[in-house]
Amino acid sequence: MEPKKKERLITTLISLPALLSIFIFSYCFTGWNFFISLTDWEGFVPSYNLVGFKNYLALFNDPLFWISFKNNLLLILIFVPGVMFVGLILAILLDQKVRFEGVFRTIYLLPFAFSFVVTATLWAWMYSPKVGTINVLLEKLGLGFLKSGWITDPKIVMYCISVALIWQFAGYSGIIFLAGIRSIPGSQISAAKVDGASTITLYRRIVIPQLKSSFITSFIIFMCFAIKAFDFIWVLNKGGPGYASHILGVSMYKETFGLEKFAYGATYSIIMLVLSLIIVLPFLIKVYGRK
Amino acid sequence: MGGNKVKNIKINRIILYILLGFFVILSLLPLWSSVVTALKTSKEVIITTPITFPLHPTLTPLRESFDYLKKPLTNSLVLVVSGTITSCFFASILGYVFSKRRFPGSTILLILVILCLYIPPQVQLIPMVKAMSKVGLYGDLGSLVLLYMLFGIPMSTFIFKTLYDEIPDSFINAAKVDGAGTWTIYQRIILPLSVIPFVVAAILQVTVIWNDYIWGLVLTRGMANMPITVAIANLKGSFVAEWNLQMAGSLWVALPTLIIFIFLGKYIMRGYTGKI
Amino acid sequence: MSSLTIKGLTIRYGETIAVENLDLEVKDKEFVVLVGPSGCGKTTTMIGIAGLIGIDEGEIWFGNELVVCPRNNIFKIPQQREVAMVFQDYAIYPHMTVFGNIAFPLEIRKINKREIEVRVEKAAKLLKIENLLNRKPNELSGGQRQRVALGRAIVRNPKIFLMDEPLANLDAKLRVHARVELKKLQQELDTTTIFVTHDQVEAMTMGDRVAVMNDSHLEQIGKPAELYNNPRNRFVAGFIGSPSMNMFEGRLKEEKGNLVIDLRFCIYELPKKIRGLMKKTISREVTLGIRPENIAITKESIRNCFEATVTYIELTGKEYNIYLETGGVAIVVTRSFTHDLKVGNKFWLSLNEEKINIFDKKLGKSLL
After folding, report:
1. Taking a contact as any Cβ pair under 8 Å apart, which residues of chain B between 38 and 97 contact chain A?
2. Whole domain around residue A147: which residue ranges?
């Protein structure tokens, strides 16, 4: 066999196991899931009767779906800008030639180390109305009037969840922006200073405008996270009180593994997939489409 | 005149450190509160503030929760080791191919691999359950072992590809001119330079697998099979008012990744900021 | 417009001394070049003048204004110093148009829009880039970007221009052209300028005065001709001029009432004029320096000459560099014709007495 063909064969062979598993477990399963969403499978015994888009119609008429969608939207609107804003602030602070910068960076990144299960346990404690950290501290500081039911209050539970998640991801957001800031050549910063720019002007007009790729990267990461979030809310309060903190991922799990409506659950997950793709695909095509 | 400017600079520095300190407090408050509570007796939990150190610290919650979590902990260890080694091995090869052996269609394939990272796991839950039932692994730890071996590949592949991109093409070209084939190049040039990529990919895999919850929840049944994250969630559910026990338990779960982030944090950062 | 006075400037980076006890006077409207090998402290001095780093000791004055003095706790931040700086990589902002880049320093000073337009256009016209005002930096060539950086500097009418190797990234042909344009621009604007480079040709052709730095010290400052013909020490003599000055080691001796240098390959008799100029020196070990163009090659032996063999001939286009060897010592001679010179031939070399330099071997100082 001629060498060029042989090399191609070897390349194909060694990549095959990994590529095959990715193909099967990500794409085939997705396709299979879509197929399931077109059936009427309920209960443990699978059923393969195709019912077209009946499940999707049912979904769009299901008030629980819309409650979940609305809660998801709320999460996105608070969490995504919130975490990006805090991350940007942290990055700017850390860019100021801070002593022990590494120590600060590590501390800010620590919440990112925790499993969502741990975060949920910690914040359940923080938010606990009777003995939780927040309410007790508010009382001690004379701010008792600010006490609240927090996650037991259906009106503000999604806000509480968003804050906890911002806490978890702020450090990570910070290092994304810090990497972006640090990639700007130092001579531009020097030039701006010599030109007369104050620190605020420097960041506003020179640094931040050049952080476009950091903004896009973090936007995509955090949007996709908000769409598929499940672990944290489920462990925190299983989507309660009532349905107040049900988001798409929570409802999907409940329908599938709680009520055994597998086809219906599959429908939920396809919707979540479509939402994620809407966010990611334009970006991927733009970045890699050129090559 | 000039002296004022020096003073202004000093004030700005003070404000800077105050702000930095403020965020340190915000970052560590929940953790501190948790540590402090984990060391308290049930009585103290109620009578003291959640941020003060206990007057009579006790290790009982930590011991009890550890006993409860013993089997799940070993389960998670098994998952982490098997998942990391396998996925890193395959990902390294695939990352090498994407980085150094471009072929028509490799860009599209790369996009498909990266896309996997953004597919919500919910889309794979039901098929996975079905598949595991078919091979008789449903409910067993083995299902998770198999899962993590495979699901870690896309992320690790991307890390390896990004880090292998930093190896100059001239190394590869020189080897080709010397007569080395695809596999030889991988063995003799890429692998020896792979220490950092392996460390980065492995650390990332370890934290992701250790911290994962949803798959353990869906695919395993029974304390004997579940990973530590599922066990801790159950702990939270069954011992609702025993905060010290819950805190202690979550500290055990948090400890390994915390240590990794503190001592190997720079590798984590390398892994995440090289990524889209 | 302002003069610049530096007294006793010392800058340290941790344990290393980057600049030590530097004194420098630059007159108003003067173009002074700071030149020296990598690491000599020239760029450090420049960013110290700009205020981008602090200094450890000394004073810097712009005219009558004390700009930085650690002893009295005085430090003006760069924004207040009214200097303009051009960086080696130009440092123009990629997300702004050419117009935006040049207008930026004026916008910061809250100058009104109409006036900004006028001034930017004026600067752009002066640099012949007025047709590029709407472009973004990534659409420009290296030479064009360099002129944008210059535009941003001149639009402010600063007290002092600081330029850190602004021509280093241009290709060779463009660099020669840019040198001339830059000097003309400075003369037209009449602004005090400090120009840093490692290229001694640039230094010699552009500077009203040239300051040679080496290893954190100022070796010599003076007009280019002064540095070329009367270098104060061996370093300056060897740094300025290409090919470098020939250096021959030898011993001073008295012989028959004349002062001679024993160069081992010959006994060189010092002309009476030189003897008169020479300072008193205890040491006898000296170095005799003579530039390649000041050595004559003859076929016959004349007074005070020595023999050498041609080892290599190099044509640079307009002249020849002829490499010779005698008694293990290498010599370079530059002339514009070769005639019958061939590798391997032996010839007699004589030195132009007017152009001899003598340095103390140990201290390096010129003894003339």
Report:
1. 45-46, 49-51, 90-91, 93-94, 97
2. 35-273
Predicted ipTM beyond 0.85: yes
Q: Which chain A residues are closer than 8 Å to B23 by Cβ?
A: 90, 93, 108
* Both structure tokens of A51: 């019912």
Report the distance separating Cα A179 and Cα A97, nearest Å: 14
Across C282-297, average pLDDT: 87
User: Looking at residue C146, what is its pLDDT?
Assistant: 92
d(CA B268, CA B198): 12
Q: Distance, in angstroms, between B82 CA and closest chain C CA? A: 47
- Which pLDDT score is estimated for A267? 93
Query: Is the separation of the CB atoms in C89 and C115 below 8 Å?
Result: no
Sheet containing strand C192-197, strands side by side: C83-86, C160-164, C192-197, C31-35, C209-214, C217-222
Beta-strand relationship, C16-26 and C209-214? unpaired
Tell me, yes or no, if A184 comes closer than 8 A to chain C by beta carbon. no
Class of domain C4-239: alpha beta
**CA atoms of A168 and A172, how far apart (whole Å):** 8
Round to whole Å and give the CA distance between A226 and A218. 12
Look up residue A197 and give its two tokens.
Answer: 């720019």
Helix (H) or strand (E) holding B181, with range, is none
Residue type, B40: K
Q: Does residue A21 lie in a domain region?
A: no
Where is C14: in which H helix or E strand?
A: none
pLDDT in tens, chain B (276 residues): 344 556 677 888 899 999 999 999 999 999 999 999 888 888 888 888 888 888 888 888 888 889 888 999 999 999 999 999 999 999 999 999 998 887 778 888 888 888 888 899 999 999 999 899 888 888 889 999 999 998 889 989 999 998 999 888 888 888 888 888 888 888 888 888 899 899 999 999 999 999 999 999 999 988 889 999 999 988 877 766 788 888 999 999 999 999 999 998 888 877 777 543
Cα separation, C89 vs C87, whole angstroms: 5
Task: Identify the pLDDT of residue C238.
Answer: 92
Contact state of A10 with B27 under an 8 Å Cβ cutoff: no
Q: How many domains does chain A have?
A: 1
CATH code of the domain in which A192 resides:
1.10.3720.10
Whether the per-residue pLDDT at A289 is higher than 70: the answer is: no
Q: Is residue A91 part of a domain?
A: yes
Higher-scoring residue by pLDDT: C30, C299: C30
Distance from CA of B50 to the nearest CA of A (A): 5
B30 Cβ under 8 Å from any chain A Cβ: yes
Q: Nearest to residue B228, comparing CAs of B81, B65, B86?
A: B65
Backbone angles phi, psi at C163, to 5 degrees: -130, 120
Q: Is residue A6 part of a domain?
A: no
Average of per-residue pLDDT values in chain A:
90
* Cross-chain CB nearest to C91 (options A188, A201, A210): A188
Quote the tokens at residue C255.
């012989």
Domain annotation covers residue A285: no
Q: What does DSSP say about strands C209-214 and C31-35: parallel, antiparallel, or unpaired?
A: parallel
Q: Look at residues C135, C364, A273 and name the one whose alpha carbon lies nearest to residue B118.
A: A273
Residues of chain A contacting C103 with CB distance shorter than 8 Å: none
Residue with tokens 């450190």: B17
Q: What is the pLDDT of residue C161?
A: 93
* Domain C246-360, second-level architecture: Beta Barrel (2.40)
Side chain identity at residue B236, one-letter code: K
How is chain C split into domains, by residue range?
Answer: 4-239, 246-360
Task: Please tell me the number of Cα atoms within 13 Å of B245 on its side-chain side.
Answer: 19
CB pairs under 8 A between A and B: 261
Q: What is the pLDDT of residues A175-196, one digit of tens each?
A: 999 999 999 999 999 999 999 8
Rg of chain A over all Cα atoms, to the nearest angstrom: 24
